[in-house]
Amino acid sequence: MTQPTMIRGEHLPTALALAACGVPVLPLRAGKVPFGNCPRCADNACGGRPNMKTPGPCTCPAPCHGWAAATTDPDILNSRVWGRAWRQSAAVAYHPGGAGLTVVDLDNEDAIAWAGANLPATRTVRTTRGEHWLYRGTMPSANAVRPGVDVKSLMSYARWLGTGTGPLTALPDAVRALVVKEPTPVRPAPVTVPAPAGGGRCPHRSPAFLERGIAMAEQRIAEAASGVHATVFGAFLAVLSTHGRCGCLTEAHTARLFAAAQAKGESARHCTDAWTNALTRLGM
Fold it and tell me: Is the pLDDT of residue 62 over 60?
């Protein structure tokens, strides 16, 4: 008689078909959870990928480190070590970010109704309790961004439940905004901002100091691997705290900072909001 574990091993063909299409996959245990790390990787003693700031594959030969184990390599998927996991698997999962996708996980009918009223229509996949809405593009993942709504993309996994229906839509700002935590504006007592001194030049440093400050802020934003909105706000705050009262900042400098932020996925509105909040924080 065929054992249940062998029946569950039939998830491997689905995984291989997805991998052939460029979708990184991994096996899930019962309860929709990844397999635990192997003894060598227990407690991340190996310095596994989840300890790092950038998404990427796990280098362990076993399906370790959750989402980071997802792969498109058929040799790995067919290996003896992974074969044991497939024989015990209850489902196939995939790494949406690795496939260039973002999944908005809607856990109930109320969440689906909210998405229908607030998000662009896109490909949908029915789940046990709700729907997955798939968008083309990647972003940071976050749970509980609103009641019944999770966002799964980079450094996350989602259960494979079929191809779904409808065309894929490009990832909209409305979804990106779900994971942005707006800084709380601080409104100190009004202060008098000194008039620009030195004809628009820094009175306390050479012009090269301003150029270095702008370049450092651009670099800080460009290197952000997560928490992009908070990084943008911090960079704006640093520039304004040093140069915002001396009259040396020009529209060209502001445009450079906004361009760096938008290159990381920030919208023009988010840039303006972050700049305004930084001015408020400084009493300007």
Answer: yes
* Token pair 């950038």: residue: 54
124, β-bridge pairs: 133, 165
pLDDT tens digit sequence for 7-20: 345 899 999 999 99
User: Closest Cα partner for 227 from 121, 168, 154, 118?
Assistant: 154
Burial class (CB in 10 A: 0-12, 13-18, 19+), 123: middle
Strand-pairing partners, residue 26, are: 93
Are 47 and 56 in contact by the 8 Å Cβ rule? The answer is no
Residue 49 pLDDT class (50, 70, 90 cuts)? low
Task: List, as one string, the DSSP characters of 49-65.
Answer: GGGSSS-----SSSS-S
pLDDT tens digit sequence for 219-245: 888 888 777 888 888 888 888 887 777
Count the neighbouring beta carbons within 10 Å of the beta carbon of residue 193: 13
Exposure on the CB side of residue 108, measured as CA atoms within 13 A: 5
Rg (CA), the chain: 24
Q: Beta partners for 104? A: 133, 151
Q: Is the dihedral of CA 10, 11, 12, 17 positive or negative?
A: positive
> CA 141, CA 139: separation in Å to the nearest integer?
6
The Cα–Cα gap between 70 and 133 comes to 21
- Beta carbons within 8 Å of 146's beta carbon, 6+ residues apart: 111, 114, 178
User: Helix, strand or coil for residue 154?
Assistant: strand
The more confidently predicted of residues 155 and 202 is 155
Contact 77, 12 (CB under 8 A): yes
Across residues 171-192, what is the average pLDDT?
67
